[in-house]
C-alpha cells in the first residue's frame, strides 16, 4: 500500500530521513504539502511569500524525478483522512516540528490516525540533535549556550543521506490544488524589490551557496561576521528554516572545511559550526520551555513597565527612528526580507531598551518581515536581546547603536546603502526602500532625515532607572 509523506519545514530531497522512511515501506510514496490552519496562522507576509517560492522549486525537483507534489489546503487530520480514502494509503510519515502549536496538532493527528488503523511515524529531518537527546549531567536541559556547545561539538553525526534515485510514484494520483490559487504572495506588497533579491531559492541554490561559503569565505567568517558592510556569512538561514538544506549537511561541510583549512581559517570554520549550533540551542530551549515563544522566559520581567506598542514602535518598524544604524537595519529587512545578525541585535536592543517597548511587538514584526523566520531562533533572539531570556545579554548592557556602527560599519557603507535622506547621490538600495514601502507611510527620499525618536543617553538612563526599580522590588 502507498505511504503519504507529509512535507513541512523539510522541503528537499537530499539528506531527508522522511523520504528514506517512506521509501523503505516498499510501496508507492505520495508527497503532500498541507496548508492547514496551524501553518497558515504562523505565516507572516515574507515567510508566506518565501514558502511559495520554495514549494514551486520543490515541486519542480519532484516532477523531474517522475513524481508529483500534491498540495491541499484544509484541516490537517481531515485532509489526511481524505487522502487516505482516495489513495488507499496505510501509512503517513512526517518530520517533527517543535513549536507548541505544531506539536499539539501532530500529537492529535498521530493518535487519530493510529485509532483509524493507519501507521503514523515521525522522524527528525530538521535538527542535528533531538532536543531531548542533549542533557546535562543531572539529566536536565541546558539553559546556557556554552556548555551546550561543549556537549555537542565532538558529536559523531552520520553522513548525510543521498538523494533517492527513485521517488516511487503511485500509479494513480489524488488531485492537487494549484499553488498559484493559494496566493502565498498576497500579503507581500514589497513587489519586485524582494523578488529580485531571492531569484535563487530552493535546494540546489542552498547547496550552491554552501559550496561557495565553505570553499573560501568561511575562513574569514570569524573576523568579519559582525561587519555590517560585508557579505561574510553563509546566508543559509531561510534555506535552513524551510529545510531546503539539512543542518547535518551544513555541519559536515563546516567541519570538513575546519579540517582542510589550517590555523586561523580552521578556527573560523569551527566558529561557523558553533553558530549553527545556536539554532540547535534555540530548539532545545523551545522544546523544554515552549513559553519562550510568547512569555518572558524569566517571569520577574512581567513586572517591568514595558511600553505597549506605541508611536515610537511604529517609527521603529518604519525605519525612521532617526538613529541611522537602526533605521538601516529596519529598512534592509523590509526590502530584502533579511537583516544582518549584528543589526538584528542592535535594533532589538534599541526597541526594548531605548524605547522600552515589549519585545513581543518586535518579535511579531520580524515574524512578518523575515524570509528566514523561524519560531525557535526568533523567540530566542528577542528574549536574548531584551534580557528576559535564558543566557541573555544582561538588561543593563545597552547597545549604543552609534558606537556599534563605528566599529562594525567603519566607512558608513552599510548606513549609506539604506539611508537616502540628505545624501547627494543616494544608493539604489536606499531608493528601492522608498519604492517598496506603503504609500500610507507618506515618506520620500527628499525628506529631511528624522530627528532621533529619543536621545541615546536619555533612553539609556530611562531604561536603567526602570531596571533598577525592578531589581529593588
Ligand atoms: P550565519 O552566520 O552564516 O550562520 C549559519 C546558520 O547558523 C544560520 O543560517 C542560522 O541557521 C544559524 N545561526 C546563526 N546565528 C544564529 C543565532 N544567533 N541564533 C540562532 N541561529 C543562528 N535566525 C533565523 O534563522 N530566523 C529568525 O527568525 C531569527 N530571528 C532573530 C531575531 C533576533 C532579534 C536576533 C538577534 C537573531 C535572530 N536570528 C534568526 C539569528 C541570526 O540573526 C540569523 O540566523 C542570521 O543572521 C542568519 O544569517 P546567516 O544565515 O548568514 O548566518
Automatic annotation (TrEMBL):
<keyword id="KW-0157">Chromophore</keyword>
<dbReference type="InterPro" id="IPR005101">
    <property type="entry name" value="Cryptochr/Photolyase_FAD-bd"/>
</dbReference>
<dbReference type="InterPro" id="IPR018394">
    <property type="entry name" value="DNA_photolyase_1_CS_C"/>
</dbReference>
<dbReference type="Pfam" id="PF03441">
    <property type="entry name" value="FAD_binding_7"/>
</dbReference>
<comment type="similarity">
    <text>Belongs to the DNA photolyase family.</text>
</comment>
<dbReference type="Pfam" id="PF00875">
    <property type="entry name" value="DNA_photolyase"/>
</dbReference>
<dbReference type="InterPro" id="IPR002081">
    <property type="entry name" value="Cryptochrome/DNA_photolyase_1"/>
</dbReference>
<protein>
    <submittedName>
        <fullName>DNA photolyase PhrA</fullName>
    </submittedName>
</protein>
<dbReference type="InterPro" id="IPR036155">
    <property type="entry name" value="Crypto/Photolyase_N_sf"/>
</dbReference>
<keyword id="KW-0274">FAD</keyword>
<feature type="domain" description="Photolyase/cryptochrome alpha/beta">
    <location>
        <begin position="1"/>
        <end position="128"/>
    </location>
</feature>
<dbReference type="InterPro" id="IPR036134">
    <property type="entry name" value="Crypto/Photolyase_FAD-like_sf"/>
</dbReference>
<keyword id="KW-0285">Flavoprotein</keyword>
<dbReference type="InterPro" id="IPR006050">
    <property type="entry name" value="DNA_photolyase_N"/>
</dbReference>
<dbReference type="InterPro" id="IPR014729">
    <property type="entry name" value="Rossmann-like_a/b/a_fold"/>
</dbReference>
